Structure formats: structure tokens, C-alpha cells
Amino acid sequence: QVQVVESGGGLVQSGGSLRLSCAASGNINSTYRLGWYRQSPGKQRELVADISGGHPNYVHSVKGRFTISEDTAKNTVYLQMNSLKPEDTAIYYCNWKTLFGIYWGQGTQVTVSS
To answer: Per-residue pLDDT tens for 85-109?
Structure first.
């Protein structure tokens, strides 16, 4: 059974930084894409960033501010968030796509105050 645990969320002032971590265990050796999504109350879940084959992609609103990275040895994906804005406030979810299933983290709250 795959287990996915997120950490790193919190409350930060506008312009601050946070780093989210998402560690997985179990049968995730066939992972081919990692992603970070976010969802605010009353809004659709949005893909923020993903990485596949070492190549990252970002939604336009976070480009230049957020960085997705992976540490294969630690089975961990990160989202470094800099220059945070109030509109970044959301619950952030990591996602692991493998040949055998799609797995989600439990979500971590990021709140950016003005």
C-alpha cells in the first residue's frame, strides 16, 4: 500500500517563503509524473506544478516564484514557494502517478496574509 505524507504548510506573510515536502513509501518505483495541486474554497482544484523525466512545468501564476523538485533517493517531491501572495492561499496536495495507480497526499494548508 502506498502511503503519501505532506508537510511544510503554514501561515506566512505576503512575500515570504515556504517549502512543502511530500514523502511516499510503498510501491512507487514506477512513478512517471509528480505534481502539486491546490484548491481554495469554492474553486476548482488547480495544477500548480508538475515534473516528469526531470522536466518541470508551472502554471503561469507561479512561474518564477515556485520550484518543484524531486529527490529520488528519499522518495520525496518538494515545492519551494517564494514571494508568496495572498492569492496563493489554498490547500496544497501532492500527486504521484505510477504505472499502478495515482496517489494523493492528505493536503497541507498554506495561508498567506497581506
So the answer is: 999 999 999 999 999 999 999 999 9
